[in-house]
Amino acid sequence: MYSTDPPWDHDGRYFRDALLGANYCVPILWLSLFDANGLVTWPGIHDGSPYAAVIQPTTECVKRSRTRLEDWSRRWPHVFGEISGLWLDYIGAVQDAYLAVWTEEMTWGAGAESWAADLRGYLSGLDDPQSADFRSALNQSSIRTSGDRLEPSDTVGLVTAGYTWARQAPWEGAAHGPYWQGPEPGDDHSGCRMCVRASPDRKTDGPQARLAGFMNQNVRLLAQTWRLLVELGAESRFDGVTLRALYQVDPDGFRDAWREETGADPPRWLIEDDGL
């Protein structure tokens, strides 16, 4: 999720000052901010190829999301009840005039035209929870539908709202993002779940105890992305810069977390770069 038009401050593969990230989906709470009137065509940051994205004024986005979440929380309190307040507080504090979602990677598997049609369908169905488009939006956000019940495939915050990129998010599963610079002087960070997990006073076993805070969460997310790209034959698109940066912080902890997620060692080029 980004907050300007179009993304420009990037490292060659991803832009740096996005608010949140997600893996090969547009989380349902991101979608809740927009409607089909916000659809735009942007040039890709990789090769300039056009793709469908969405951008609208922040004040309108927050109001739209709040209205939808009031309805969704009544229907599915076990999914949206707790995350709604955290989400609205987080997104309501954004000072930028616009919110946008960078969706270029979504075109890599589906193709630009197919993705544009899918995105329009998701946005068109958000105000009709009984529609097929709404169910499709949930499904691509890793929320399964079983009759009238919703079943998130992972932590509710992670699948509905994504994870931290540059601005720390407060829900479980948000972790610390690759461009998060840490709390500002004077910040009370005692409520951060990831910092609590990394505290020396907290006793845990296994690789999670050796990887501090954001490391474990982000290594596992990167491992999931790598595995998917390998399956698609698109591993050349992987963000090697971020991977190397995390690996160099704690090679042993990195390898343990990677193996725990994938059942295999990290890519050979990464280990060889370390001289092992």
In a few lines, what is going on in this structure?
By secondary structure, the chain is mainly alpha-helical. The protein is built from 13 helices and seven strands. The relative contact order is 0.12.
Describe the fold and architecture.
The protein contains 13 helices and seven strands. The model is unreliable at 196-213 (pLDDT under 50). The protein has helices at 28-31, 58-75, 77-92, 106-110, 112-125, 132-140, 156-161, 193-198, 207-210, 214-232, 240-249, 251-262, 268-273; strands at residues 20-21, 39-43, 50-57, 98-101, 143-146, 149-152, 163-164.
Using DSSP, what is the number of strands?
A: 7
User: Which percent bin holds the helix content?
Assistant: 40-55%
Major beta sheet summary: 3 strands, antiparallel
N-end to C-end Cα span: 37 Å
